[in-house]
Amino acid sequence: MKALIIGAGIGGMSAAAALKQQGIECAIFEAVKDIKPVGAALSIWSNGVKCMNHLGMGSIMDELGGPMHNMAYLDGLSGAVMTKFSLAPLVEAVGERPCPVSRADLQSQMIDWWGRDSIQFGKRIEKVEQSDTGVTAYFTDGTQAFGDFMVAADGTHSAVRAHVLGYQTERRYAGYVNWNGLVAIDESIAPGNQWTTFVGEGKRVSMMPIADDRFYFFFDVPLPTGLAQDRSTVVNDLTGYFAGWAEPVQKLIAAIDPDTTNRIEIHDIEPFDTLVKGNIALLGDAAHSTTPDIGQGGCSALEDAVVLGQCFSAEAKNVSGMLAALKNYEEARRLRVKDLVLKARKRCDVTHGKNMQETQAWYDELRRETGENIIAGLRTTILEGPLA
User: Fold this and answer.
1) Residue 91: which CATH number?
2) In what side-by-side order are the strands of the sheet with 81-86?
3) Is 216 part of any domain?
4) CB-based contacts of 296: which residues, under 8 Å, 6+ apart?
5) What does the DSSP 8-state code read for residue 190?
6) Among 115, 124, 143, 108, which Cα is nearest to 35's?
7) Is the pLDDT confidence value at 316 over 90?
8) In this structure, is residue 239 part of a structural domain?
9) What is the Cα 173 distance to its own chain's centre?
10) DSSP characters for 288-337?
11) Burial 46-79, CB ≥16 within 10 A → b, else e
12) What pLDDT is stored for residue 38 in this prediction?
């Protein structure tokens, strides 16, 4: 049995790993010739780390995961600590640590783990055709590939999604712009073993430690969509948006490299129930494009892959078994991923001042927070995954 994997990102590579465990041949096709990840880093929470372990790639997380032992929220303007607590109770409760990682390093190591030479790059899918005997992918370079089934992990701008759904989806602007990148850890800005977040005015500045003594940083600012952007003005733009904010924020702005800082308008897509059409399955951002506000985008793609493999392990390796496995995957994932997208959307609105009364109430809650409530929320999200 042969699977066509469309996309060599985190979702595609993890899907291939999961199917390989079940003895299924995988052909991987990636649209670009040289992968340049969108975003400098991402948070892989404990559920995602468990998935990487399950897929045989846990050593990658051991190497790339930063030492994120504590969590703190600070008042953006005064710099005063609102709450600070250890993440050790969370790790103890769920059985695994969270791992903030460089996105480029993670994707590169997943590709190397699979075998870079066995992935076909520069293969942008143009259309698909399905039949009772298989699925054919047609690429823009005039080539084509045939397999028994397809896993479309081709991202938020998926070319396959409309074929599966029968309609084009619209991306929804979440209302804020995110700047992100990497800088060397500076203890005068934030502790090197802590996820530190400054909040105020519906804005956010955050730093997570990753491997090699680096912070993954991001700035969030509620702004209209479609504003002009220019790397040369990044420092001046952020200086203006965060005028009057605490000294560590100003130090961080001064430390960033505009040439390696990403500016992204944050979007999501309204959740949908159809993840599978016959012998084609959507996975990762193609199936559930979310805002990054609860840090579950990468994790949910990894969960998808694990569940896909589990479904195939329970089904016979013939056409009827394959179709049943794909439908079981859809049934197992559709409510989970919808819940994660909507949770992220709700957190996004509160964090970024959609209703400033609600946002101010959240700031007030943070000043009373001991860590128990935040950890309880994280624990619930993690333990609802497939490898609890």
Assistant:
1) 3.50.50.60
2) 81-86, 70-75, 194-200, 203-210, 214-222, 171-184, 262-269
3) no
4) 45, 290, 340, 343, 344, 381
5) S
6) 108
7) no
8) no
9) 17
10) ----STTS-HHHHHHHHHHHHHHHHHTS-SSHHHHHHHHHHHHHHHHHHH
11) bbbbbbbbbbebbebbeebbbbbbbbbbbbbbee
12) 67
| Cα gap 227→195, rounded to integer Å | 30
Its pTM stands at: 0.96
Write the pLDDT tens digit of every residue in 202-240.
999 999 999 999 999 999 999 999 998 888 899 999 999
Residue 31 domain-assigned? yes
- Domains identified in the chain, total number: 1
Question: Residue type for 191, please?
Answer: P
Of 35, 5, 33, 31, which is closest to residue 140 (Cα–Cα)?
Answer: 31
Token duo for residue 215: 């912070």
Rounded CA separation 184/67 (Å): 14
Structural element, H or E, at residue 26: strand 25-29
pLDDT at 37 over 80: no
In a domain, residue 255? The reply is no
pLDDT in tens, 122-166: 999 999 999 988 999 999 999 999 999 999 999 999 999 999 999
Name the band, by pLDDT with cuts 50, 70 and 90, for residue 314. confident
Range of the domain at 18: 2-171+268-384
d(CA 155, CA 297): 11
